[in-house]
Amino acid sequence: MGLMEIMKRYHQIAIDGPAGAGKSTVARKVAESLGYCYLDTGAMYRAVAYKALVEGISLDDEQAVTNLAQNTNVCFNRGDGRSVFCDGRNITTHIRSTEVSRAVSVVAAYPGVRERLVHLQRQEAAKGSVVMDGRDIGTYVLPEAEVKIYLTASEEERARRRYLENLQAGKVSSLEEVLEDIQQRDRLDSEREYAPLKPAADAYILDTTGLPAEQVAEKIVSIVRRD
Ligand code: CDP
Hints:
alpha/beta, Rossmann fold, 8 strands, 51% helix, 14% strand, globular, binds cytidine-5'-diphosphate
């Protein structure tokens, strides 16, 4: 039996959207309410970017970055769902740095990198019910997900959320700089050729501007229960 057939036995919720839309906070709450596992696919792309930076590989060298991704293992702590491990090493805090945020959309545009990570993501979905967040979950990774959500919010609000998140993590940044980084990443993610950021044809589009994460998560859970 193929991976796709095994995956069908479980429930799948796909949450996509641009940077800072609140996907991970919301997806985590939805997973908790439903008793599913949460998988942060962005953390996997960040892990590859981080490893490339540490190993001094030029981000423009598609072949080298692709080879690196093919030989990288990324996994999550199933207990807290937060800790990210790259080849057995805990890199949870490292992958949130500004350097990684600036590098990630470059490596994420390479088809070979995506192929490797999508394979790992589908393997996870074959183990049990999941809430997965990212950019191409509803359109590509889990095309048969029973509920697909496209989360968005105004650019200003998304920048403000990311800025506050940084502050809480003790990271100094300026709102303008965060806004520019988000705009640059959204542009690269939407314009890339292979599995770009876009809502699936059958996605519910939720604009979360002004809405607390708790309320957004409740709305998604109610959509899942109604469907
Ligand atoms: O949390 P934030 O919105 O900043 O982004 P993330 O979910 O951590 O994703 C980081 C980057 O990984 C994105 O900007 C994309 O370049 C890439 N990514 C992707 O290409 N496909 C996914 N399924 C998830 C993330």
